[in-house]
Amino acid sequence: MTQACIVGSFEHPLRLAPDKSVAQLHAECAAGALLDAGLDFPDVDAYFCASDAPGANPAIMVDYLGLRVRQLDGTSVGGCSYLVHIGHAAQAIAAGKCRVALITMAGKPRSDRMATGTSTLIQNPVLPGAPFESPHSPTIIGLYANIAMRHMHLYGTTPEQLAWVRVAASEHAQHNVYARFRKPCTVQDVLSSPVIAAPLHRLDCCAITDGGGALVLADASLARSLRRPLVKVRGYGQTVKTNAGGYADLLPTGASRSGSDAYAQANVRAKDIKYASIYDNFTISVILQLEELGFCSMGAGGRFVADGNLISGVGSLAVNTDGGGLCNNHPANRGGMTKVLEAMRQLRGEAHQEVQVPNCDLALACGPGSVLAGANSHATVILERL
Amino acid sequence: LNGITKLSAAAAKDPYVLSHPELEPFWVAAERDILVLPFCVRCHIPHWYPRSRCPHCGFGSIEWRQASGDAWLYSFSLQTFLSPPNVLCFVRLDEGPLMMTSMSAADVGELRIDLKVKIVFRRAEAGRKVPYARTVMERELAERPLAPVNK
Questions:
Q1: Any chain A CB within 8 A of the CB of B125?
Q2: Which chain A residues are within 8 Å of B49, Cβ to Cβ?
Q3: d(C-alpha B39, C-alpha B53), whole Å
Q4: What is d(CA B138, CA B147) in angstroms, rounded to the nearest whole number?
Q5: Of A89, A107, A109, A111, which is closest to residue A99 (Cα–Cα)?
Q6: CB atoms closer than 10 angstroms to residue A343
Q7: Chain B nearest CA to A242, separation (Å)
Q8: B29-57 per-position pLDDT tens digit
């Protein structure tokens, strides 16, 4: 079976882009990833995007870019959409349905002054849960605060432990010239930032940024002809964590299921992973996913992240060495793309020298899509440098 | 449902009611401040949020049964930034399912996970009456029989 490799990756350098259209940002990301791969637009024969693309339909950007595609995918399942796209693109390449797959994402929530986390979630009456939920004004941060509260209640997780996730991200972000927030912060800085929805403080929340990113996948024989390090898609998994009709626990993100599928396909375990990009829309999200992915036992996530354990060169597992969504970038309110982009830098040895994991040949990137505590998707990919 | 047969004029115009015609018995009961739950006719397990068929076994027929209105606080958070602020919370109904709901911000000081709460109804702006949670008075607590937390 033909193996798929990621041959191009690109993160838009801007974090505020009021003078560019969303279509232009998608196009600039596409051009950047193709240049990185040593390919050009006529080489692309498959296009993948989610609902952040104008029109929420891949046909619009395919037309804008003048592509000639024979495979397309508009799967839109929230922030992890691009991780799902990698799985779908790898399948299409393996099936011989395409050779060069382009995935783009971009958006401008910062220019649009979106209050992403504190706005009442849009509750279209047609959504089946909306009649019962809309009057309670659920917000993204309100839901994650419920999750954090429950985790603290069950496992004794503390606000200080949550804060360590932010501290690690900020330690990494100081080395990223493009990062939205570059100043290192302390646990005390997080705890003295305003409480938005207890137990979550402002610094437990990710950035709101304009920008985007893109990836190019190709079959292995084409990938070998390009002058870039060879990064193989070794495993992937995707799932939906449902409410199980009211009987699901609030805490699981779906990472245990998407992760176990990815581990099984890759034939690796958590202890084999040299670097992990874990979607960090809120500090609590990282703790939940580290537990589910087997980097620590269930309930031990708070203790695992404490005392700098996620800081590259300091702790046992380097996580989000670009600064993550918390400090670097969270374009279009979605973290799945940037998670893969930093994993690619680590695998190619192109991360900043202060955060580069030595001999990083196996990396994991994962994240949920949509808001936890409702039906949410989750996807995990495992990438290997050959 | 004991003579409750009609939606109020306000509820009958609510787009959230109109979008889900099969759930009308729920809103009719809500007019009388009664919580009903959809129970599967085959596996007999109730679910939340209410839907037309059982999410546990897939059976296509449910029946509405009156619930106790008793629940336990599962998690909560004060949404300080809303105007007015509220407490977004999840409660475990005595019948089993977990329900997203909210409580008055005035109650937040006495809230702790596993606290007993009661389901009450308030009319939403759109017209229908919707289940909320409230804390339980000490007197009610003394009178109330013990109930299982989980199904």
A1: yes
A2: 128-129, 131-133, 243, 246
A3: 9
A4: 16
A5: A89
A6: 29
A7: 10
A8: 999 999 999 999 999 999 999 999 999 99
